[in-house]
């Protein structure tokens, strides 16, 4: 008995050494050199969805961001969480890349206010161990952290801004970060900005065009945005891009603006708010 092995470039016959009720056992398979070469070539052109996980350590006047980049894998996510938890770190919620990346491509991280970033590039590959990460040193604190991920062709593949109030987690660290003579701020874990940022991707996917238009009117009425900002958004034809610009614009304006947007959404589309699991808060609209 022989097994016919069909491949894209042809067929081959494999010798069967043992047959059971459900299986045929091949002890010495004939590996095609062409198949190996083709598999290697094709593996360089595979699109994969990726995870980005950010952890920050605040040390007096220094920030240590660690940004993990790896192909989506629940086991790897758990490995990162366990590793960072053992070091007492907290995860900062950031947006996922909206497009897939090429496997085996490399990426460079840019944080304008950083003094060092290592390694210079990370290659996107499947790993058995804990994923690789960028480690940066920021010699100033109390500032928003702007991050950009550049692909092989130096195009921006992903970008994010982490506001100060998302990495200041308690009064002690806030006093040290903001410096003497400035009041300490309370913890903002669970803040409306954090709440809105966490649903950014789903908001962009689900919100309808009519709701976006009414939302713009409401944001203008309550002075969250000005007339110029409203006009710049109105000319955007694509629904998803318009939604993306609106939520990013509001996120940059802080917690009160985010609260007003959440309240407006609750009035305009209660079903969407239920799906996003966000609740109205105590800022009058």
What does this molecule look like?
Residues 1-180 form the FIIND domain. Residues 188-280 form the CARD domain. Its main location: cytoplasm. It is a single chain. The chain is an alpha+beta fold and 285 residues long. The protein has 3 domains: 2-43, no CATH class; 47-184, Sandwich (Immunoglobulin-like); 194-276, Death Domain, Fas, CATH 1.10.533. It is built from 11 helices and 15 strands. It has a 5-stranded antiparallel sheet. A 4-stranded antiparallel sheet has the order 12-10-14-15. Strand 14 (145-150) and strand 15 form a beta hairpin. Helix 6 packs antiparallel against helix 9 and helix 10 (255-268) crosses helix 11. Residues 169-190 have low confidence and may be disordered.
Task: Map the helices and strands.
Blueprint: E1 2-7, E2 10-15, E3 18-19, E4 24-25, H1 33-43, E5 47-48, E6 50-59, E7 62-71, H2 74-86, E8 90-92, E9 101-102, E10 106-110, E11 116-118, E12 122-123, E13 133-137, E14 145-150, E15 156-162, H3 164-167, H4 171-178, H5 192-198, H6 200-206, H7 209-221, H8 227-234, H9 239-251, H10 255-268, H11 270-276
Antiparallel strand pairs: 1-2, 3-4, 5-9, 6-7, 6-8, 7-13, 10-12, 10-14, 11-13, 14-15
């Amino acid at each position: 008995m022989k097994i016919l092995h069909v491949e894209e470039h042809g067929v081959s016959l494999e010798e069967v050494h043992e047959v059971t009720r459900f299986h045929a056992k091949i002890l010495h398979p004939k590996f095609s050199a062409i198949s190996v070469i083709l598999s290697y070539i094709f593996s360089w052109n595979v699109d994969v969805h990726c995870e980005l996980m950010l952890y920050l350590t605040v040390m007096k006047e220094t920030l240590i961001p660690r940004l993990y980049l790896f192909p989506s894998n629940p086991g790897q996510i758990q490995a990162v969480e366990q590793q960072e938890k053992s070091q007492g770190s907290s995860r900062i919620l950031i947006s996922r890349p909206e497009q897939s990346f090429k496997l085996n491509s490399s990426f460079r991280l840019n944080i304008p206010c950083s003094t060092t970033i290592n390694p210079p590039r990370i290659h996107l590959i499947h790993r058995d161990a804990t994923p690789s990460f960028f480690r940066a040193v920021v010699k100033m604190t109390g500032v928003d952290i702007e991050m950009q991920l550049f692909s092989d062709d130096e195009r921006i593949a992903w970008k994010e801004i982490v506001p100060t109030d998302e990495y200041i987690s308690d009064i002690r660290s806030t006093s040290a970060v903001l410096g003497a003579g400035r009041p300490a701020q309370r913890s903002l874990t669970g803040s409306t900005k954090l709440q809105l940022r966490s649903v950014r991707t789903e908001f962009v996917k689900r919100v309808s065009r009519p709701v976006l238009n009414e939302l713009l009117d409401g944001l203008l009425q309550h002075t969250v945005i000005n007339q110029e900002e409203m006009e710049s958004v109105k000319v955007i034809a694509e629904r998803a891009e318009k939604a993306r610009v609106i939520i990013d614009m509001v996120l940059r304006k802080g917690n009160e603006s985010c609260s007003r947007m959440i309240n407006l959404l609750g009035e305009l589309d209660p079903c969407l708010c239920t799906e996003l699991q966000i609740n109205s808060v105590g800022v009058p609209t």
